[in-house]
Structure formats: structure tokens, C-alpha cells
């Protein structure tokens, strides 16, 4: 976490610089020197406020996760609380549209995922994000399928989101949001049909 006193205007500037450098040279090549040059600040400022590259990477991922959460929350607020199927699609779309598909964000996400396996703090951030996704999905699914099965289907949708996003991120053509929704909706529709017929 950045120290108290870090000018608010500097945080987004340094976060953007970090993503830009990761996009160009990858995480391992993203040195404090390159990031500070990109942001137009001294390396001392980064070391002072973030404690170095690790702290800056954590703040960068927190910023991405905050924006991710904000976009999904905003989309959900625009829908009726009873529009559960549409709300699930808003959650899906939040992972495949807008900010989350910008090139520098995608490459930072990929770096974050690989790095999180070996770093407890980054792993914790990943777990928080995963739990938030599952929680959002379960709230909506409980009205469409038996409550006892909502967690299992939520994890299935989350796995599809992660897998499709990863495949798209590694594809030179990028992430296909329409295809993602089609695949995930096909899974969701089959689950709803199955449990409807099981009860019937």
C-alpha cells in the first residue's frame, strides 16, 4: 500500500506508467528506473511511497481491481433487482469489455496472475477478486436454480470467464466478448434447463 501523503494525482500516473512499461517489456523487465522515467518522476519517489517495485505492482493491481469492481457495480445498478439473467450477463460483460480489455491492462493481469502464485500478498488480492465474482454470481443464480447448486454453477461460470479471458488474452486477435457471452450463456441455459426439469 502507498504511504499516507502520496499525492492523489501521482497514484494514477504511476499506475498507468507501470502498466505501460509492463505492456512493452513484461513484468521482469519493468524496472523502477523504466517506470519512473515513464511517469516522469524520480526513482526515489517510488521507493519512498511504495517501498519499491513490489509495492507499486500491488497498488497497480488494486487500482485495476477497483476499476473492475466499479464497472460491474455500475452496470448492476442500471438493472432491475429482479432481472437476474441480465444481471449475470452484466457480470460476464464486465470481464470482457471496456477497461479490462485494454492492452496494457490485459498484460498487467497476465503478469499479476503468474506472479500471484509465488507472492502471498498478490495471491490474497487474487482470492479477494475471485470471492467477489463468485458472490455476485451466487446472488443472482439463487433465484434461477436451486440454492444448493448455486455455488457449483457460479464456480463453473467463473472458470469459463477465466479460461475464455486467458485464451483471448493470448490470442493475437484479442478477447471476443460476443463469443465469451455465447459460450457462458450456453452453459448457464443448460444448467437452468437441467434443474428446471429435475424439479419438474
TrEMBL record:
This protein's UniProt keywords: DNA-binding, Repressor, Transcription, Transcription regulation
Pfam families: TetR_C_6, TetR_N
Pathway: Amine and polyamine biosynthesis; betaine biosynthesis via choline pathway [regulation]
UniProt DNA-binding region: 31-50
Organism: Vibrio ruber (strain DSM 16370 / JCM 11486 / BCRC 17186 / CECT 7878 / LMG 23124 / VR1)
The protein's name: HTH-type transcriptional regulator BetI
GO molecular function, one term: transcription cis-regulatory region binding
GO biological process, one term: negative regulation of DNA-templated transcription
Domain HTH tetR-type: 8-68
SUPFAM superfamilies: Homeodomain-like, Tetracyclin repressor-like, C-terminal domain
NCBIfam families membership: betaine_BetI, PRK00767.1
Function: Repressor involved in the biosynthesis of the osmoprotectant glycine betaine. It represses transcription of the choline transporter BetT and the genes of BetAB involved in the synthesis of glycine betaine.
Amino acid at each position: 500500500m502507498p504511504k499516507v501523503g502520496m499525492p492523489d494525482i501521482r497514484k494514477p500516473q504511476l499506475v498507468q506508467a507501470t502498466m505501460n512499461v509492463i505492456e512493452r517489456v513484461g513484468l521482469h523487465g519493468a524496472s523502477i528506473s523504466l517506470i519512473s522515467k515513464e511517469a516522469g518522476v524520480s526513482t526515489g519517489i517510488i521507493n519512498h511511497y511504495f517501498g519499491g517495485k513490489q509495492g507499486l505492482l500491488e497498488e497497480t493491481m488494486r487500482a485495476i481491481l477497483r476499476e473492475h469492481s466499479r464497472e460491474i457495480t455500475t452496470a448492476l445498478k442500471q438493472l432491475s433487482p429482479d432481472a437476474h439473467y441480465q444481471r449475470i450477463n452484466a457480470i460476464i460483460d464486465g470481464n470482457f469489455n471496456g477497461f479490462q480489455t485494454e492492452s496494457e491492462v490485459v498484460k498487467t493481469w497476465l503478469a499479476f496472475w503468474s506472479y500471484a502464485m509465488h507472492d502471498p500478498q498478490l495471491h490474497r488480492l487474487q482470492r479477494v477478486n475471485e470471492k467477489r465474482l463468485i458472490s455476485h454470481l451466487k446472488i443472482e443464480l439463487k433465484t434461477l436454480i436451486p440454492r444448493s447448486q448455486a455455488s457449483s454453477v457460479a464456480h463453473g461460470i467463473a472458470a469459463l470467464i477465466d479460461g475464455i479471458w486467458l485464451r483471448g488474452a493470448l490470442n493475437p486477435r484479442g478477447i471476443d466478448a460476443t463469443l465469451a457471452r455465447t459460450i457462458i450463456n450456453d452453459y448457464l441455459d443448460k444448467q437452468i434447463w437441467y434443474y428446471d426439469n429435475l424439479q419438474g
